[in-house]
Automatic annotation (TrEMBL):
GO terms for molecular function: fructose 1,6-bisphosphate 1-phosphatase activity; metal ion binding. It comes from Lithocarpus litseifolius. Its cofactor is Mg(2+). This is Fructose-1,6-bisphosphatase, cytosolic. Coiled coil: none annotated. Keywords: Carbohydrate metabolism, Cytoplasm, Hydrolase, Magnesium, Metal-binding.
Amino acid sequence: MDHAAEANRTDLMTITRFVLNEQSKYPESRGDFTILLSNIVLGCKFVCAAVNKAGLAKLIGLAGETNVQGEEQKKLDVLSNDVFVKALISSGRTCILVSEEDEQATFVEPSRRGRYAVVFDPLDGSSNIDCGVSIGTIFGIYMVKDSIEPTLDEVLQPGKNMVAAGYCMYGSSCTFVLSTGAGVNGFTLDPSLGEFILTHPDIKIPKKGNIYSVNEGNAKNWDGPTAKYVERCKFPKDGSSPKSLRYVGSMVADVHRTLLYGGIFLYPADKKSPNGKLRVLYEVFPMSFLLEQAGGQAFTGKQRALDLVPNEIHERSPIFLGSYEDVEEVKALYAAEDKK
Ligand SMILES: O=P(O)(O)OC[C@H]1O[C@](O)(COP(=O)(O)O)[C@@H](O)[C@@H]1O
Ligand SMILES: [Mg+2]
Ligand SMILES: [Mg+2]
């Protein structure tokens, strides 16, 4: 192997340097975003370490509280939430925080306020914590108009207005995936260095995939278009081979695989949950932002997911996201249904 040529082709890039490079493209930038992101990265490293030793450090199991969603909180849900609230406030760059684990939004006290609002799911895939299956953290960032007297309107707005979104997956390796509106990049944590290194530059999702990802246990309650679409995945009429089913039950893990391999992830509405299960602000929006930035698309069953305007911070929405052509097929089925 021609090491020199190889060395000239690749770049040993940490996430800090990557974001500083991005920042240098905006001469007027004060570095606020870079500081905010470095605290989010620190929070992810902290949670990654806690997840890795969860079984040893008695961090498995329930915390004994219930969150606003009526879900029993896991110890790691509570710990991760505390870590991110601290990391975000101590960045001095945020004014509003919306967390899955907190009923109300947190308004940062004036002396520590900055001009970003952060919506986040501190620990996603909670049902998989105790069995050590991949889980993650999801976040979205808005630049607020008025950091002096911020109101909830700063976050109750379309996802397309976010300035950045990302997730960190705590799996066989710890992977941080980020978009600041100019493509999607993935970084892998080198535990020996404690550094996130650029390993997945400029991620582009394949136009079409051969994987579908859904909790088929809800099938009896699905609406017509969803049932028809999944039927087609299993019994294609166009002579193509059936899609493979993959479902981890952690949105971060199912979306990460979809982003890299292509295909579609869906959590549709059904008779039991007419708005689906996943939350608009800190699950649907960040993942839809990343998918669109990678060349895929995200659809609610009615509209482009990023055009949604939520009315309240824990609002849910059905979601179909993934490869462009696969989601296009779902959109056609809903359009046909609407015509009936
Ligand atoms: O068990 P179900 O109904 O398939 O739901 C799985 C979905 O619920 C979630 O676990 C909800 O997220 P939280 O774990 O953050 O509450 C998603 O990660 C996942 O996609
Ligand atoms: Mg979640
Ligand atoms: Mg969660």
